[in-house]
Write a structure and sequence with these properties.
With about 350 residues, the protein is an alpha/beta fold. Among the domains are: about 25-100, no CATH class; about 160-320, Trna Endonuclease, Chain: A, domain 1 (3-Layer(aba) Sandwich), CATH 3.40.1350.10. Helix content is about 55%, strand content about 15%. A 6-stranded mixed sheet has the order 1-6-5-4-3-2, sandwiched between helices. The longest helix is centred in the first third of the chain and has 40 residues, at about 15-55. It starts with 13 loop residues before the first helix and ends with a helix. This is Nuclease of restriction endonuclease-like (RecB) superfamily. It holds the Pfam family YhcG_C. It comes from Flavobacterium arsenatis. InterPro entries: PD-DEXK-like_domain, tRNA_endonuc-like_dom_sf, YhcG_C, YhcG_N.
């Protein structure tokens, strides 16, 4: 091998290579897990349907289900076919057999334990679909799903005002999609921050946990870089974080602010988007989109700041701190209650 063809690994961004490799493996594992979950849920669905159609009810049907459990466990010892679980399968079928396709697809890819939690804790079909999609997209554990339910994330997401100008700056279909993709609030509790930080430190922590941040953003985001350099008219500009969204075919610039929203942030973002569209946007790509991520925002302040802006910009809040002691206590109580139920 010639010296020219040799690659000095120190000259490459090794961390980027490592992160890409890790993401490839985790993505593959997620896809495999979804297939496994879908298959298992299909079996549970069919068993639940069988019990439902045979009109078996707890009480007079308990003897039949107990015997069924014994015989099935002898044949399939690793499938978790206890009497209680068989009744849960019937509940699962009863809850969803008249549900629409989107809801059925959402719960089909969840682990069985997640579906049991939704059965016990969430009644509204639209709320079930919301939590199922969030859990699937963000890879939530059962405890994180419980956390979200207890925080009533569904109601908060439903009631949040849209603080963006997408409807005025994007074609209707793109605006609808952008409103689905971008949220009004993001939870950055995974950073473990317990005291005030500077914007650069916040950015560095997000970069260190970029996979968790991308999961919080949602599906379709690919990370391009931080402090992304743009040069125009002999001047340099730096975008805090730059992403690409595959579904929207748009570059997405994110600016981080540790304080409350200020109107001047919009002008700066508008400039960045103009430069991105001029210097970076591909021929077949859609206009770049900007998100200003700040600690707090006032809807009216955002509305007036965006009023005459012709670039698509959204403003979102983030939460860094969670009521840790209260939340841990809440989750432990729920886990203990579940364990007690399983023993009875």
């Amino acid at each position: 091998m010639s010296k020219k063809s040799q690659i000095n690994i120190e000259e490459l961004d090794y961390s980027a290579i490592l992160n890409q490799a890790i993401n490839q493996i985790k993505t593959a594992r997620t896809l495999v897990a979804k297939k496994v979950n879908t298959t298992a849920n299909s079996v549970y669905w069919n068993l639940g349907k069988l019990l439902f159609e045979k009109h078996l009810e707890e009480g007079y049907g308990s003897g039949v289900v107990k015997q069924l459990s014994v015989d099935l466990k002898n044949e399939f010892p690793d499938m978790g076919l206890s009497p209680r679980n068989l009744w849960n399968m019937k509940r699962f079928y009863e809850r969803h057999y008249q549900s629409d396709t989107k809801l059925l697809q959402s719960v089909a890819v969840l682990p069985w334990g997640h579906n049991l939690l939704l059965l016990d804790k969430v009644q509204s079909p639209s709320a079930v679909e919301f939590y199922a999609n969030e859990a699937s997209t963000k890879g939530w554990s059962r405890d994180l799903l419980l956390n979200a339910i207890k925080m009533d994330s569904y109601s908060r997401a439903e009631n949040q005002l849209k603080t963006n100008n997408f409807s005025n700056t994007l074609p209707e279909i793109n605006a609808e999609y952008a409103n689905e993709v971008f949220k009004s609030s993001y939870n950055l509790g995974f950073l473990g921050i317990t005291e005030p930080v500077k914007e650069l430190e916040l950015e560095n922590r997000l970069i260190a946990k970029i996979r968790a941040f991308v999961l919080e953003l949602g599906k379709g985001f690919s990370f391009i870089g931080n402090q992304y350099r743009l040069e125009y008219n002999y001047k340099e500009y730096f975008v805090d974080m730059l992403f690409f969204h595959r579904g929207m075919q748009s570059l997405v610039a994110i600016e981080l602010k540790i304080g409350s929203f200020k109107a001047e942030y919009v002008g700066k973002m508008n400039l960045y988007l103009s430069l991105l569209d001029k210097l970076e946007k591909g021929e077949n790509e859609n206009p770049s989109i900007g998100i200003i991520l700040c600690a707090d925002k006032d809807h009216l302040d955002v509305e007036i700041a965006l009023q005459d802006i012709n670039k698509p910009i959204g403003v979102a809040e983030y939460q860094l701190l969670l009521p840790k002691d209260e939340l841990q206590s809440l989750i432990l109580n729920e886990i203990n209650a579940e364990e007690e139920n399983e023993q009875t």
